[in-house]
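Hey, I'm writing a tutorial for new members on how sequence and structure tokens pair up, and I'd like a real worked example in the thread rather than a made-up one. If someone can provide the structure for the chain below, I'll link this post from the tutorial.
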Amino acid sequence: MQDFKRKKLVKNILFSYATLFILGVFIVLLGMSVFERFTVEREMSMRRVEAERELKDLKLRAAALELQVEYLEDDRGMEAEIRGRFDVVKEGEQVVIILDDEKSEEIEPVTGPVLEDEPWYKFW
């Protein structure tokens, strides 16, 4: 009989409202923690994708800069870059100016006031 009473007492304690409430609160807190970890994981994966894309862009930029450095290390490339940026010539070079035989007619711009369609009451 003692064994039966002891089992009934354990059953009453396990299935009491207080125990079920405590277990429910524990499950809600555990669920909240799992959801927070899930959102952090999603954010980190998005950041990882963004960082990988930025890394790929930086590698492409580094490759382009490497090519430009190789181009500028060559005397011909350096000369071309200097001539492109500045108006310079080497010693012994001459400047050639090519003129057109026919003179093109120049149209003078109209400098009068431009008339626009305005409502009749805007003349005041």
